[in-house]
Amino acid sequence: MIVLLIVAGGYSCFGQAKPEGQSGYDATLAQKLGADEYGMKTYVMVFLKEGPVKIKDSVAREKLQTAHLKNIFKLADEGKLITAGPFSDNQEIRGIFIFNVSTVEEAKKLTDTDPAVKAGVLIMELHPWYGSAALVEIPDIHKKIQKKSIVDN
Length: 153
Prior knowledge:
Number of strands: 4
Number of helices: 6
Radius of gyration: 20 Å
Strand content: 15-25%
Largest sheet: 4 strands, antiparallel
C-alpha cells in the first residue's frame, strides 16, 4: 500500500504546473533546433519499400546493402538524415528515413543518392511530417551510445 501511494504521488507531481518563469523553455535551443512555438518542425518521412529488382547473388546483395548503409551514414553526417532503420516484420515496407528537410522535393533528391534506390531494390514513398524539433539531436546522441558501427561488420 505504501509503495502504491509513493508511485501515485510521484505521477501526480508530473501533472502539476511549474511556477511562472520555470517552464523549462529554452529559447536558444528552440531556435537552434528550428522549433516553432510548440517545439515542433516539419520533416520528411520516407517509407522504404520493396522495389521491383530482386538480387539473388548473396555477395552482390551484401555489397549493395553495405553501400546503402554507407549512404545512410553520409546523409546523417551531413545533418540531412535524422534517423533510419529497418522494420523487422519482413513486409513490403522495409524501413524508414526521417529527413531534416522541409520539402518532399529536397528529400527526393537525397533518396535518389541511395544505391539501393538506384538499383531498383528499394523504392521510396515520401510524406511531409510534423514532429518534435528535438529529433535533430538523435544523431549526436546515437554516436555517444553506439559501441560498434553497423557498416564495419
